[in-house]
Amino acid sequence: MTHFGYIKRMPLDAYKSQKRGGKGISGISTREDDFVENVFTTTTHDRLLFFTNKGKVYSLRTIDIPESGRQAKGTAIINLIQIDQDEKVNAVIPVKKSHNAKYVVMCTKNGIIKKTEIDDFPKIKKSGNTAIKLDDGDELINVMLTDGSREIIIGTANGFCIRFHEDNLRPMGRQARGVIAVTLRDDDYVVEMDLVDRDRDILVVTENGYGKRSDADEYRLQTRAGKGIIASKITKKTGKLVSIMSVSEKDELMIISANGILIRTKIADISKMHRDTAGVMLMKLDEGDRVVSTARIANDEE
After folding, report:
1. CA 230 vs CA 113, 161, 205, 233, 299: distances in Å
2. pTM of the model
3. DSSP annotation string for 143-203
4. Domain boundaries in the chain?
5. Percent of the chain scored above 90 by pLDDT?
């Protein structure tokens, strides 16, 4: 599935095995400012769950996604699920017949988090079901699958973050609102949630194109609902925090600006610095432009 919502499926044998270090082959033809954001290996019997900013969940069997050739750009997701005009798919979760995941964890812009058993999403109406009850003015930011033993990190626009174990979350039903993940300061809001891996770094990126990597250990474990600690030094030069994520040196980072400019950078090339620093420039922006989103591109061998 691409950043702008095009999706397709292909037989796995469309990609012949290649030696490491090869140039690779084209997997999809995209419009100039689009790129592939999610790739899943699945079967026609499995389901995909699509979570939107409105707190709804939609379901598609893999077989219901049109099969296309390697060069085809795919089908717009809005033609396959009945989302509203102002709805945007913020997360896609593959549900396999055999999987280790037990829970779906959801986080909202206003700092609310909820954990729901994945078995609570058995049959979903074509028009979608409620995944989380949202307060007025709130929206769903991100959704993750967990096995019940993970650590979660949440970042806010004003440069704060909180890291806690999911033991702090008890499972709730689909109609529930959830609990406080982070106590927000004035004029602040959540921008991202990710799962922490101890052997990976934490990467932050700000709206004026600055970013840095830091050791995960610098982001100490806390209790849910706290105010958090500084994730990045936010100044007028850096702009607000846009994303926080767990990364490997082998990964790459895609940065997308409001004007549709994209830059792809190796994580290994991003400076490693202390948690409370501003970082270095990752993307030079034109006047009036700003970073609006980022995406981690896992290394090919993974």
Report:
1. 20, 6, 13, 7, 29
2. 0.88
3. EEEE-S--EEEEEETTSEEEEEEGGG--B--TT---EESS-PPTT--EEEEEEE-TTSEEE
4. 1-97
5. 65
